[in-house]
Amino acid sequence: MRIGCLQFAPQVGDVDNNLNRADSVLSKANPDDLDLLVLPELAFSGYNFKSLQHISPFLEHSGSGITSLWARTTALKYNCNVVVGYPEKVDVSDNWPTSPEYYNSAIVVNGDGETIANYRKTFLYYTDETWALEGQGFFDGFIPGLGNASMGICELSMKIKANVFVLIMANSGMDLKFEAPWHEFEFAFHVLECESNVVILSMAWLTREDGRMFSRMPNEPDMDTLTYWVTRLEPLIRSENGDEVIVIFCNRTGIEDDAVYAGTSAVIGIQDGEVKIYGLLGRGQKDLLVVDTNNPPYAKLVHRPEPNHPSVLHGELQKMNTSPASSTPTGSGGSQSSQPDRSQQNNTAQYARGATFFCGFT
């Protein structure tokens, strides 16, 4: 499967320029033979709105707004499925004075330009709650060319009780509702129950790091954020199903007011307790990540406990040995996966069943 993640830096309310920013990244990459193209949450409106009044000029009807038009045009151009986030307005009745409903949504358009799904975010972050309603549950369905798919919008967080633990990623773009314990893993169990082989996550996820320090290394991924995302998929890692589950994290980058986004878009594969990395962007890169999951992954994500805090895990990449003709996946639509040295694989640390993953918490 050839997957593209378009990571860029939209700005609040700057729709025309945001469209141009996305088109510029795509035109430079000029990808071919894509099966799926994913864009971030609220890709063209920007994310960090303060109120319903603030976002109102940018609300769209599903199927007739600027986002759906862009998705159809792009899907037809590249003959692929396109997933993109947008702020949805729903007129529930033609009879006044019924009020419209508003959702943080993602539209899915197939290669024929047809809308085949429209998902409404279920776990709302506090920024969403200033204007949006909760959706009715996570998406699952069969998407031709992809298979059984689950989809979420920045929904790797749990509904947690405030007294369960101390959250040290408080400004991480998570959907905090303070209602369920850490081990609920609502989204991950949904994926297992639906037997999905593809998981699509459109995101506007913040970093917990200081913005000035964070932006100094734009090509470096935010490993704390990536490890947290993977940790929230622990039930998939523990699963004995045996089939690989492809997970697409399409995040945005950039800064909106005091909100600093983590970037680090990635395509991973989870199978037999291992987390394989097919492709990964840096925290500040504005680029198109393209990977082919039919090729071998170029790295694995391994975890190591912090020496003085064994319950706190940190993720790091362990690259596989590559042949001279192979290269690490990059952006600009030209990524290749490196060939692993099979003799080294047994020495690679992995997420073993029965391990405990509480990365980022103490």
From TrEMBL:
UniProt GO molecular function: protein-N-terminal asparagine amidohydrolase activity; protein-N-terminal glutamine amidohydrolase activity
Gene Ontology terms describing biological process: protein catabolic process
Ranges annotated as biased composition (Low complexity): 322-344
InterPro entries registered for this protein in UniProt: C-N_Hydrolase, C-N_Hydrolase_sf, Nta1
Sequence ranges assigned to domain CN hydrolase in this UniProt record: 1-295
Region Disordered, residue ranges: 320-348
UniProt cross-references to Gene3D superfamilies, sorted A to Z: Carbon-nitrogen hydrolase
Official protein name in the record: Protein N-terminal amidase
Lineage: Eukaryota, Fungi, Dikarya, Ascomycota, Pezizomycotina
